[in-house]
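Researcher: Let's do a round of design. I'm pasting the structure tokens now; please hold your answer until I've finished.
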């Protein structure tokens, strides 16, 4: 069962790339006639270039690199350089806090006992 079964009716599957001309026998690399490559060779001759086929059939050694035969490149990728340590972020200096400006003095709340004691002061009524 294909996953196209679940696609909407208007969906068209992508078309395969056009097949290239078959690579002639004269242009095949030396290792391409190995018996283990025969099932793969007919498909590869139509879908990849001569250079890609040469690279695919190039011998590689995947064993212990200390005992690799001379002349055969080791199949492991070359180690990539490790980037240096990242310096720790420096703290951002913050400006010193400024003292708050002096505000106007607030009136002292009036004590009802003080009002009765000094009748010369005006009586201030506040809404509740």
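Researcher: That's everything. Go ahead.
Model: Designed sequence:
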């Amino acid at each position: 069962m294909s996953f196209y079964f679940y696609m909407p009716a208007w969906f068209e599957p992508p078309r395969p790339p056009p097949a290239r001309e078959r690579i002639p026998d004269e242009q095949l690399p030396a290792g391409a006639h190995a018996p283990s490559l025969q099932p793969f060779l007919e498909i590869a001759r139509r879908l990849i270039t001569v250079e890609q086929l040469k690279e695919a059939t190039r011998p590689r050694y995947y064993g212990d690199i200390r005992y690799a035969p001379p002349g055969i490149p080791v199949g492991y990728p070359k180690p990539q350089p490790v980037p240096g340590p990242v310096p720790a972020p420096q703290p951002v200096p913050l400006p010193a806090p400024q003292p708050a400006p002096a505000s106007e003095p607030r009136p002292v709340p009036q004590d009802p006992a003080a009002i009765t004691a000094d009748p010369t002061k005006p009586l201030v009524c506040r809404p509740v």
